[in-house]
């Protein structure tokens, strides 16, 4: 069963579908028109949902890391200045984050953690741990009027 995850389904009714597997899908119709999509599979309901936000995690130069809280840290490296955000696939909510510049060169083999269950909490920090080296990157998800706390920092 395939359902289209429209904006009205993303509220509390979508939470009954958790946990979700989110994956990139290229239809096997033989056409190379770049019409890829993101799909969500509900493990609990055994249903497949087409995702409206497929551009957010589209193939190509995008990178993403999952969190234990169900959010996905998404980075689009396809632009001059990368577009970075936290995205909740069950609600469709996006939380913009400071751009990750090329100077950070964050590898894919990182683990992403949030310091709070709710990333809009004033003290919440996003942390990326490099699994292959003793490196980590972090930034605050919300600003306190001070933009210096809203930038990515690296520790080695």
UniProtKB/TrEMBL annotation:
Domain KIB1-4 beta-propeller: 40-154
Highest taxon of source: Eukaryota
Name this protein carries in UniProt: KIB1-4 beta-propeller domain-containing protein
Organism: Miscanthus lutarioriparius
């Amino acid at each position: 069963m395939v359902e289209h995850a429209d904006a009205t389904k993303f509220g509390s009714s979508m939470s009954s579908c958790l946990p979700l597997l989110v994956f990139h899908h290229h239809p096997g119709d033989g056409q190379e028109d770049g019409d890829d999509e993101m799909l969500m599979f509900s493990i609990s309901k055994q249903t497949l949902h087409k995702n409206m936000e497929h551009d957010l995690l589209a193939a190509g130069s995008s990178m993403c890391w999952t969190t234990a809280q169900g959010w996905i840290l998404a980075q689009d490296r396809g632009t001059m200045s990368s577009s970075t955000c936290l995205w909740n696939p069950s609600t469709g909510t996006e939380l913009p984050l400071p751009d990750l510049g090329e100077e950070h060169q964050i590898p894919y083999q990182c683990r992403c953690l949030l310091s709070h269950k709710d990333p809009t909490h004033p003290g919440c920090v996003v942390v990326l741990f490099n699994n292959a080296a003793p490196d980590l990157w972090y930034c605050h998800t919300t600003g306190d009027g001070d933009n210096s706390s809203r930038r990515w920092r690296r520790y080695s």
